[in-house]
Every structure is written in C-alpha cells, then in structure tokens.
Amino acid sequence: MKCKYLLISALLAVTAPLGALASNVMTKPVLSIDEPQKVLVMANINNQFSRMLSANINADVTWIAPVGTETEKGTLLVKLDDRDYKLAVELAKHRLSQSRHQVGYLRRELDSATKLAKTQNLSELTIEKLRYQLNVAVNEKSINQLTLEQAKLDLERTKLYAQGTGVVVSNDVKVGQHALSGQRLLSVVDTKHHEVTALVPVKYASQISKGQTLKLFDQSRQLYGTVRGILPVVEKQAQTMQVILTLDDSAENLSVGQLFSLELQLANRGPQLAISRDALTIKRDRQYVVRVNDKQETELVDVKVLGSSGENLIVQGDLKPNQLVVIRGNSLLGDGDKVTML
Fold first, then answer.
1. Angle between helices 124-156 and 83-119 (to 10 degrees)
2. DSSP label at residue 187
3. Residue 307, SS3?
4. Does residue 325 contact residue 27 with C-beta atoms inside 8 Å?
5. Three-state secondary-structure class, residue 25
6. pLDDT of 155-206, one tens digit each?
7. CA-to-CA distance for 304 and 18, rounded, in angstroms?
C-alpha cells in the first residue's frame, strides 16, 4: 500500500509542473516599411503566333513534316503532287511562244501593207483587217502571259514552307490524301515570340497602362514583359480583367501554359506594417499572428494581408512596429500561453 502511494506521488510530481512550462519560440519584430506595395497575380505563357498552313491548290499530299518537327524560316513542311502543274507551266510557255510569233508576223504584215498603200492601190479595208488581227493577237499574248504566271504560281504552291521559328504541333492530312484548296494541312506554333496572359483584379486597373514594363518570375528565373493590351471586359464573378504582355526574344525555353507570378507595384500609401511570411497563421477562414507581450504571454491578433515586400507580408491589424510575433510554433499556440524566446 505504501509503495502504491509513493508511485502515485511520483507521477503527480512529474506531471503537475508540465502545464506551467513555457514553450520555446522564435520571434521577429513587426516592421514599418515605407515603399510601394506589391501584389502578385498568376500569369500564363502563351505563343504570340500560331500558324495554320492551308493548301492553295487541289493536289495529292506526297509528303508532310511530322509532328514535333522544329522549323526555321524556309523549312519545307508540305509537298503536294506537282506533275499536273509542271505540265500546265510547259503548255502555258508553248502558247505564249506561239502568241509572240503571231504578233511578230502580223506586225510585219501590217508594216508591209502600210508601205504598199502609199505606192499601190491597196484597199483601206485590208489594212484595217490586219490591224484588227494584230490587236486580237496582242490581247491573246497578254492572256497567255498571265496564264503562264498563274501556272508558275500554282507550281510554287505545291511546296509549303515555314515562315519562322516554331514547331509542328498537328498534321491535319495524311500522305496520299487529296487536299482541296483552302483545306488546313498542318499547324505550327511559334517558339520564339511569346506573350503572357494574366487575370488582374479590377481594383488594380488604375495601376496598369499600355506600354508599362512589369516583372514576372517563378522559382528559377525572372523575366520582364511589356503590357500590349488590356481587355476592357470584366469577368463578373471573379471581377478580373485580362492583361496581355509581350516578352522579348531573349525569353527562351518557355512552354505554353507555364505559370509565372506577375508583380504589380501599387501606389505608395505611406508607412505600412510588415511581418515575416512565417508569422502568418491561417486556420479555416481566419488569418492571424501570435504576438508576445511584455509578460512573455501570447496574444492572437487577426490581420489582413494587403500585399508583399520581398520576404515580408504587408498586413493590416492591431499591431505596432517593433512588437514581437512568433515565427516558429505559432500554429500550436493560443491566447495566454507562456513562452520563452530563443
């Protein structure tokens, strides 16, 4: 019985003081900063140009660049059957040659008839007939010249080339398939010229203007984009508007859909409170920090995040500069807890 009593007493001696032990925490002071407020919004990388190559003639497809083919300006992408178009060029050349000979012959005949009319009794009707025949021949020659130019153009259209740097992303026809004029053959996405699309809250509309340069970044790099356009259409539920930025050619190795953070600098509103990002605790619908008072006790203070400044958050709440807030273990603390600052 005596042993049992001693065991219980020992347990009570060990457990009783635990509630009074102070938690060891790390803290940082609340700062007062006087600089423009920064807001981050998500942005997506898009291609500035996407080209769809279509047939301009009717012909069978004899070769097409496979999906994934990288292109430069002048890269061959599609070959169409050119046999009929080569024949058309040769026929047009032959007809044009005949027309030229006919025009030359009639001009010589007209010149001879005109000279004879001065010395011999040659009727005016004969001369007028020759003039008419010459005019018809000249018109026919012009038509045959245009026909030859069109035939050469159609022959050139049997081969389609890339207009710039990019990559083939789709084939819409197969080799052996008959393509009709106007039918899409393949699509090429530009890999050199990029643009950024961001959905910016309407309340920041006054902070953005066309031609403005803004910073974008992800975990590995930083880019700069120039505002090309601001779409004056607001998404009703999210209350956002679309902003489009162009990137210079030095922005390489980007993928469509890649996410970046777009930094907006707002007007300077004077000194503002800033806390370490680690000091913010989020639970359900509540955002708060754990402040340590002069008695080394904790106080939960609700805050509203207004923006960011480097590694700090701009906040609004019942805080003052130089007050200490917990940055380690804050999620485990409540009001009135005793703490020891490391």
1. 160
2. E
3. strand
4. yes
5. strand
6. 999 999 998 888 999 999 999 999 999 999 999 988 878 889 998 988 888 8
7. 35
